[in-house]
Design goal:
Layout (H helix, E strand, L loop, with lengths): L4 E5 L5 E6 H7 L2 E11 L2 E7 L10 E2 L2 E4 L11 H7 L9 E9 L9 E10 L15 E7 L1 H13 L7 E6 L4 E6 L10 H12 L4
Helix pairs in contact: 3-4
Length: about 210
């Protein structure tokens, strides 16, 4: 995976060339990522990253996400949903939520700077019907309601998540259980607060 070739960009989004993925993360080059948020009328589906992932192991993240390889168009990122969730969507069914610049703090020698193309799609299937997700990449799925997602996003934006706990349902592919989610469990993408209302809109939920 570290040998994958990525397009690299400057801060303005101008294409500079290509580079190995490992070198991109070593040098902190800007590169492209695709994020998909799956929503239902009653909530937002988060992915729990596998415990052995190089970055953010065990954290909750977008429903499906990944890098765009060199030469790929944005719409090619839809493959992440099928690879990670086992769900096939048409790109035309996605709602675009913009492009967000995300620069993570350095973690274990990895410097991650991404131009994240963010989308949402409505999918009302019950948690227990998500049976085809990649058990190597994804430890499970967590559903939180829209108000809970907004609370998590606001706490991350404020940098003060003390005492914030959001009720949810967690599915590991075998059993579903009640859970509580704290902001510290969520990958802190800075755009989350900005998309909370948009996720409600895509889901057809009441504001």
């Amino acid at each position: 995976m570290e040998d994958e070739i990525l397009d690299v960009f400057d801060e303005r989004g101008w294409h500079l060339g290509t580079k190995r993925r490992g070198d991109v993360h070593r040098d902190g080059d800007w590169h492209l990522a695709f994020h998909l948020w799956v929503v239902r009328g009653d909530g937002v589906l988060l992915q729990r990253r596998a415990a052995d992932k190089a970055s953010w192991p065990g954290y909750l993240d977008a429903s499906a996400a990944g890098h765009l390889l060199a030469g790929e168009a944005i719409q090619d990122g839809i493959r992440e949903a099928e690879e990670e969730l086992g769900a096939a969507y048409a790109f035309d069914d996605l709602a675009s939520l913009g492009v967000h610049r995300v620069a993570d703090p350095e973690r274990s020698g990895i410097v991650n700077r991404e131009l994240q193309h963010v989308f949402a799609v409505r999918d009302e299937r019950p948690l227990a019907e998500w049976t085809s997700f990649d058990r190597v990449e994804v430890a499970g799925l967590v559903l939180v309601d829209h108000a809970g997602f907004a609370a998590l996003a606001a706490a991350l934006a404020d940098g003060d998540g003390n005492g914030v706990r959001v009720a949810g349902r967690e599915w590991d592919g075998t059993a579903e259980r009640a859970t509580e989610v704290a902001p510290a469990e969520v990958v802190p993408a800075p755009y989350l607060a900005a998309i909370a209302a948009d996720l409600r809109r895509v889901a057809g939920a009441q504001l």
